[in-house]
Amino acid sequence: MAISTETSQGKSRISGIIFGASSYLIWGISPIYWKTLKAIPALEIIAHRIVWSCLFLIPLILLMGNGKEFVRAFKTRKTFLILMGTSVIVGVNWLIYVWAINTNHLLQASLGYYINPLVNVLLGVLFLKERLRKAQVAAVLIAAAGVLYLTVQYGDFPWIALSLAFTFGIYGLIRKVAPVGALPGLTVEALMLTLPGIVYLVRLESAGTGAFTHAGLAVDLLLIGASVVTTVPLLFFALGARRLNLSTMGFLQYIAPTMMFLLGVFVYREPFSTAQLVTFGMIWTALFIYSADSVTALKT
Prior knowledge:
With 300 residues, this protein is mainly alpha-helical. The chain has twelve helices and no strands.
């Protein structure tokens, strides 16, 4: 019986790593997808992403057996108001992300998601009254120094990176207090944003400036496919998170910004200055200290 249980746990862990790694890998290479829609304004892409994701998510949560939780989110006033706020935050995050990719700021987007775990630590201190260990303090200070160095030396405040890091961090912080799962919660958020999205797309259509049905079948399919690019990695993430501990998922999360970084430097040939190299080096050092400290803390 013990051997059978250990075998089952081992298989569950392996499948969890596959699901978790796949989710971050898809997020990491998704810039390739958004680049194919570079000719379309980011706001229009996001509107399609929201509308089609909603149409994809509703039958998906019914298939996954989350229908009751989805309905309960609307009936519970606190949950509904929380998700109303997070829907705006995630919409802003998506907009900045797609805009950054299609205006050749992929390296800043990568930097933002490298910084995100450290932003989460900072937000935990400010809003959840969590206490930092010395190594965590050092990691946050090194990351902050890296951002400051880039601002001074490169002459360009990395607002894209910080906006992505903080919107995603605040989104995660607020969702912590919402008693709703990842998939039902995202579906509610998408549904809340769908009406404004439809209104915006109808306005574009009436003005004759919309891309859908006017830019070719390939573009139409890519806009519809944005729902798959949005929901599939989230589903994989949820399946992975159920099977793995938080520390393992924490390590896997670096796959996404690493893939973005490699795409930005080696595929899309974005300018990579010495100042950026130093900043990324400081962020990577901070993440190494943070990760090593997290492993040590789990062992004690």
